[in-house]
Amino acid sequence: MILVSACLLGINCRFDGQSRTNEALLSSLKGAYYIPVCPEQLGGLPTPRSRAWITAGDGDDVLAGRASVINEAGGDVTAQFIKGALETEKLVALFNVKKAYLKGKSPSCGVGKIYHGKDLVTGNGVCAALLLRKNVELVSV
């Protein structure tokens, strides 16, 4: 079973109410079993919502309580990002997920690169960091 960021599959769940449909990914998944997931929605955030970013560090720092996720309106959405990651973790365990295709640069799903405001920095999003702890192979799309 494979986990896939729902926005990559054409589901309008991004912060701006849009998707980032990836036709090549959709084509490669033909015949495969996969679960669409949006950790931010699973955490209780609406769509659309204010853009958010990790204030310092990365998803590991958020999970450890050393960093926060703040939206552009100044609201602290750390709890929702953590809840979304934990709900995603439940799906991983329930369906024995071993691989995930995640939306790059996202504060939830980013693998290897995320934004701090307008700056692209090295690090993983909150959900990606938790999935790595569960030995899920992550592919940034």
The sequence of SSEs as H and E is EHEHEHEHEEEHE
Count of distinct strands = 8
Shape: globular
Protein structure class = alpha/beta
Structural domain tally: 1
The helix count comes to 5
Percent range of helical residues? 25-40%
Short description:
By secondary structure, this protein is an alpha/beta fold.
Question: What report would you give on this structure?
Answer:
The protein is an alpha/beta fold and 141 residues long. The chain has one domain. The chain is built from five helices and eight strands, in the order E-H-E-H-E-H-E-H-E-E-E-H-E. It has helices spanning 23-28, 39-42, 59-63, 78-95, 126-133, and strands at 2-5, 34-37, 52-54, 69-71, 99-102, 113-116, 119-122, 137-140. The strands form three sheets. A four-stranded parallel sheet has the order 2-1-5-8. Strand 1 (2-5), helix 1 and strand 2 (34-37) form a beta-alpha-beta unit. Helix 4 runs parallel beside helix 5 (126-133). The protein is globular, with a radius of gyration of 14 Å. The two termini are 18 Å apart.
Secondary structure topology:
Layout lengths: L1 E4 L17 H6 L5 E4 L1 H4 L9 E3 L4 H5 L5 E3 L6 H18 L3 E4 L10 E4 L2 E4 L3 H8 L3 E4 L1
Parallel strand pairs: 1-2, 1-5, 5-8
Antiparallel strand pairs: 3-4, 6-7
Features:
two-stranded antiparallel sheet, single chain, globular, 4-stranded parallel sheet, alpha/beta, 141 residues
